[in-house]
Write a structure and sequence with these properties.
CATH superfamily: Aldolase class I
Radius of gyration: 19 Å
Distance between the termini: 39 Å
Helix content: 40-55%
CATH topology: TIM Barrel
CATH class: Alpha Beta
Shape: globular
Structural class: alpha/beta
Mean pLDDT: 95
Number of domains: 1
Low-confidence stretches: 350-363
Oligomer: single chain
Order of helices and strands: HHHEHEHEHEHHEHEHHHEHHEH
CATH architecture: Alpha-Beta Barrel
Bound molecules: 5'-deoxyadenosine, iron/sulfur cluster
Number of strands: 8
Largest sheet: 8 strands, parallel
Number of helices: 15
């Protein structure tokens, strides 16, 4: 193993802090270095978060999107996609099923779809908590106004997932025409101020991305002090302008995950569906390289196949019960247990003040 690799790894394990150059050294790991990196991340996960794997049932309730991201199958110019919207009643029914299956948290995700007005979403949030008994709600609805975020937080939403996608501003602007990196960051800071547990994250293997960019991604997650980081491989979609590009590799995604775990020991890190899509063992490996969350897809079957962000999504035709059962088996086979309760971030106190204080310190 390279001397500089051993030094950077030891420093990461001890201080959970590295320079951009040191992160790059870790991201270059191969062979026995890759194994050592995985072991170190697994140890940090075990030490700070224990053996629990948290399950979050994800409901993809609309595949309409006003944006035109070059990498995503839901982009508005994709005319081959059959678009759908679930009604509030259908969303509540899907969540009821999640609760029955023992999933205490639901994630509501959609494209950026203004059809769902802020009060309509707020009402769904209220009913999910009051009528269905959902313990924690994560929203993943893209960029909205501060007022919308405030209303939803007040209605009972606990968490918000808004990936920064890439820390490279120019690449961001090029891949997400009509949007800006600055506004994305502004939204993330609003969410923090409003007392959400905030998730961000990035794709691995985007065209034009290098190890330096990935190091910046990890440093940004650290600076934002996120409660959750969603990191998955880019998978080219045939009906997008990036159809002919290479996708993100398993190894590089695992390395990014592992370094993120080393630098953010308390963050929730999902073993993503995208990772499970590029490799049959992807989810298992994700859990072994620092991951501690799995998000089973609980979108009703007739809709699920149309939420085609990327092709070949793992488990797209699988009944929800079968899917959840196989995830439970996977967790048990690793000697891990299913997280109990709402699975809040260990550093979250639910206090708005704390977030305002942090946001004030940051900027
Ligand atoms: N491959 C992998 N992940 C993708 N996403 C969008 N398009 C792709 C793709 N082609 C991810 C983005 C986004 C989330 C909804 O899906 O990170 O935040
Ligand atoms: Fe829409 Fe999100 Fe896909 Fe961009 S990544 S096209 S905002 S669903």
């Amino acid at each position: 193993m390279r001397k500089e690799f051993c030094e950077a790894l030891a420093k990461a394990q001890k201080n959970h802090d590295l320079s951009r150059e040191e992160i790059i050294v870790l991201l270059e790991a191969e062979g026995e270095e890759l194994e050592a990196l995985g072991r170190a991340a697994d140890e940090v996960r075990e030490k700070y978060l224990g053996r629990e794997v948290h399950l979050r049932g994800i409901i993809e309730f609309s595949n309409h999107c006003r944006q035109n991201c070059l990498y995503c199958g839901l982009r508005r110019d994709n005319k081959h996609l059959r678009r759908y919207r679930m009604s509030p009643e259908e969303i509540l029914a899907a969540a009821r099923k999640a609760v029955e299956l023992g999933l205490p948290t639901v994630v509501l995700q959609s494209g950026e779809d203004p059809y769902y007005s802020a009060p309509v979403v707020a009402e769904i949030i209220r009913r999910l908590k009051e009528e269905v008994g959902v313990k924690a709600i994560t929203l993943s609805l893209g960029e909205r106004s501060r007022e919308d975020y405030r209303l939803w937080r007040q209605a009972g939403a606990d968490r918000y997932l808004l990936k920064h996608e890439t820390a490279n501003r120019e690449l961001f602007a090029c891949l997400r025409p009509g949007t800006s990196w600055e506004n994305r960051l502004r939204c993330l800071l609003w969410l923090k101020e409003l007392g959400y547990q905030v998730g961000s994250g990035n794709m691995v293997g985007l065209p034009g991305q290098d190890l330096e960019t990935l190091a910046e991604d990890i440093l940004l997650l650290k600076e934002l002090d996120v409660e959750m980081a969603g990191i998955g491989p880019f998978i080219p979609h045939p009906q997008t302008p990036l159809a002919g590009e290479a996708g993100g590799s398993l190894d590089l995604t695992l390395k990014t995950l592992a370094v993120t775990r080393l630098l953010l020991p308390l963050a929730h890190l999902p073993a993503t569906t995208a990772l499970g899509t590029i490799h049959p063992q992807g989810r298992r490996l994700g859990l072994c390289y620092g991951g501690n969350v799995i998000m089973p897809d609980i979108t009703p079957l007739p809709y699920r196949r149309h939420y085609q962000i990327y092709p070949g999504k793992a488990g797209v035709d699988q009944e929800i019960e079968t899917n959840v059962a196989s995830i439970r088996d996977l967790i048990a086979s690793l000697g891990r247990s299913i997280g109990r309760g709402p699975g809040h971030s260990p550093k979250w106190r639910g206090g708005v003040e704390l977030y305002e204080m942090r946001a004030g310190q940051l900027y």
